[in-house]
Amino acid sequence: MDGERAFRRRSRPGVCPRGRGRGHRLPRRDDLSHIAALAVGTAQRALDESVRHAATATQGGTPIGDFQLVQAMLADQQTGVLAGRALVRDTAAKYVAGEDRRIAPSVAKLYCTEMAGRAADLAVQVHGGSGYMRELTVERIYRDIRLLRLYEGTSEIQRLIIGGGLVREAKKNLS
Question: pTM score, two decimals?
Fold first, then answer.
């Protein structure tokens, strides 16, 4: 159970009735891979919604997916999703192996949450004016993805962790 805290289901009268709030495992703050993975999954959903809309919506009788700039937006989303997925897998493997439990998770969290924000923005763009309406999935994604850039350390904090870690590593290697 190294690196996590476990709460057992226990009932304490007056403190936590029927064990509510117990039984959860909380990851250590230095394992941000789960947030990066959530961001990649959300970006994938934004891409899926964008592709579906591009294939079915028309402008002047032509599917908008036939327009090159819409194709470019889809390509940018796909590129980000694939890069993010590879980064999450690599980071998780390094974390489990004990090779890197600080810099790589911060890199994954930073890249993937920022990428997901861009993917959500592009999804709204592909959907046009309707992309900002509450009835559509992409509007919800656009709102929700912002939280991931704040949760468990803002993007700015992740940059400080990454940069500071790289400098510390370089100093250690020079000694």
Answer: 0.81
Catalytic residue among 139, 152, 156, 169: 152
Q: 152 catalytic, yes or no? A: yes
DSSP labels, 22-80 = -S-EEEPTT--HHHHHHHHHHHHHHHHHHHHHHHH-EETTEEGGGSHHHHHHHHHHHHH
Q: What is the pLDDT of residues 89-128, one digit of tens each?
A: 999 999 999 999 999 999 999 999 999 999 999 999 999 9
b/e burial code for range 81-107 (CB count within 10 A of at least 16 → b): beebbebbeebbebbeeeebbbbbbbb
Class of domain 31-174: mainly alpha
Radius of gyration of the chain (CA): 20
